[in-house]
Each structure stands twice: as C-alpha cells, then as structure tokens.
Amino acid sequence: KALSRSSVRSRMALKPPKAYNSLQKGALVWDPKPLQVKKIFEALKKGLNEYLEAHQAELDYLSGRHKDTKRNSRLAFYYDLDKQIRSVERYIRKLEFHISKVEELYEAYCIQCRLRDGATNMKQAFSLSPATKASRESLVELYRNVQECTEDMCFIEGALEVHLGEFHVKMKGLVGFARLCPGDQYEVFVRLGRQKWRLRGKIETDDSQTWDEEEKIFIPNLHEKFEIKVTELRGLATILVGVVTCDSSSFFSPKPQAIVVDITELGTIKLRLEVLW
C-alpha cells in the first residue's frame, strides 16, 4: 500500500485535492466519486480517439498527395505538403501521449478505489467481531488505509481534470415561437462550478436577437454540471422562465455540438447553444 501511494504521488503533477464541507461544523470530508469519474473518463477517451482517427485520416490523405507530388517534381508544393505532414505527425504524437496519460491516471485511480473498497469491507467485518485489543488496532489501521486511499483518489481526480481541455460555448439564441415578441428582454445565466457567464439579449422588431456576449470559455471538471437559468426582464421586475442542468459528458467531441435545452417544462422556450471542445 505504501509503495502504491508513493508511486502515485511521484509520477504525477497533482493539483490540491478538493475538500468538501461536511455537515459537522469544522470538519472536512474527502468525497471522490468513482462512477462520475468513470463516466467522464470514457467520454474523454472516446473524444480523444475520435480526434486521433480524424488526424490519422488527414495524415493518410496528405501522404498520398505527397507521393504523387514527388513523382510530378513540383518542388514548392512538395515541400509545403511535407511541412503539413510533419505538423500533423507532431499533433498525433501529442494526442497519443495525452491518451496514454489519461489512461495511466485512470488506472491508478481504479487501483486506489479497489484498495479503498477492500479496506472498507474489512473495517465493517472487524466492527462486527468481538471487541479485543487486536481488533481495535486493526480497525485503527484500516480506518487510516481508507483515509489514505480516499485522499489519493482525490489527488488523482485533480490531476485528471488538468487533461479535460476547454469548452467554448457560443450563444445561438432563444427559440420560443409565439412566446418571443419584439422588445422582450432576457437574461441568461450559465454556471459551471465557480465559473459564471451572465448575458443579456433583446428580441428585435425583425425577430432577430442581439446579445451583449456571444462566447465564453469554460474549464470542465469532473463533478459539476452546467446550470442554466433564464429570466425575462420587464422594467425593474424579473420573471423566472426556468432553470435546467445539463451534463457535460456528451461535449467531449471533436465536432461542434449543437445543444437545444428546454427552459420551460413544456418546451415552449428553448435555449440554443453551440459547444466546441
């Protein structure tokens, strides 16, 4: 166990783990979430592999043109293609390293998760056995092991978040059919953890929409979902249109994702966004 922990810490540049406030005053609780981490890891790996396949296809296409150009002796075009090929090859190597690093982190995370589960099961078994000095000492040691595994899992979660990239979110407007009228003003508030984006828009006389901001960059994390709140502005008053949450696991894709979110329960007002990872 000690060797496993030291290897985890020594191989990775780790962010400070996240400590979550517990219900008890003054206490801190380590709170890793293995199921959510697995979900994000699978989505991230799928997206990275799609990026890799797209650039491999581009490399194959450029390599074919490179051979044809070499036979035709068009030197200037040949050297330009050669530069493009080298650039794509460097990016492919970077992607392959990124994928291997993500897999290494998740493998270490799973090991710590299994160790924690085993220590937790043994702790429960010892707690049901007759109280002796040996069983009490074993319980203390098992409790320490559970805490150490939990701490390591939180450290690895922080290290994995470094490899999640960025989400570029573009505002595409509201869709409301008869609900949207010229002159109506709306405020859209998007939050992901501590990251916030507040923008205001107006419905014009030609039914077009103008917004004071069009794009925002969010840094994804493992545990938080997008929270979207839309309010209608009427003079000094504000009327809540709706609040929804949106899971970010589907955004790990090399292609821009068009997102349409139902803001009202009946879907009479929708919000259109575009997310580029």
From TrEMBL:
Domain FAM65 N-terminal: 2-277
Signal sequence range: none
Domain of life per record: Eukaryota
Record InterPro entries: FAM65_N (IPR031780), RIPOR3 (IPR026136)
Family, per entry: Belongs to the RIPOR family.
Protein name (database record): RIPR3 protein
Gene name linked to the record: Ripor3
